[in-house]
Amino acid sequence: QKEVEQDPGPLSVPEGAIVSLNCTYSNSAFQYFMWYRQYSRKGPELLMYTYSSGNKEDGRFTAQVDKSSKYISLFIRDSQPSDSATYLCAMASGTYKYIFGTGTRLKVLA
Amino acid sequence: GAVVSQHPSRVICKSGTSVKIECRSLDFQATTMFWYRQFPKQSLMLMATSNEGSKATYEQGVEKDKFLINHASLTLSTLTVTSAHPEDSSFYICSARDRPANYGYTFGSGTRLTVV
Question: Are B103 and A51 in contact (CB < 8 Å)?
Fold first, then answer.
């Protein structure tokens, strides 16, 4: 079993839809949870960074962490074609080492 | 915000030659930088952790003699792929954090290496 599981997609949604992206994990030591957006042939760009459980909102993006279920989510409201990218979740315990999900490919259709 | 510059963005080299990739933190000092490798449609795999002024820490299964890492200053880390082979063709990405307590690492734009 992988430490971090993420559905690779692709996920296609119409413009304006609410997008829900998710990751599950098995290591209860993870405390830091990140979401990155990666466009084709580019490096990942940090979208959200959360410590421990709870919600965090930034503009159209909301990150949720449920440590009891070992489940994290990223919601994108009013999705735009420019949101089409691969979304990677990443997690870390108290060390520097990230464990990445495989990424979910999102397509927002105009 | 923190910016990490990676160069070159794309390189093609012949088998047996060496290639150097640079990773620079432009507006902050990074005592630690990380090197990742990403295969198509796969996740990022940590190759090594680069520490300024000391030897890099390599992940299990990564050949330290093949992937030479040098972190000579607080703003520059380099990855040299030595005696490159076609199987080394991949997307290499570096990252750094601008503060020790910050887990939101900043990534470079990546280097696409093709070995022919």
Answer: yes
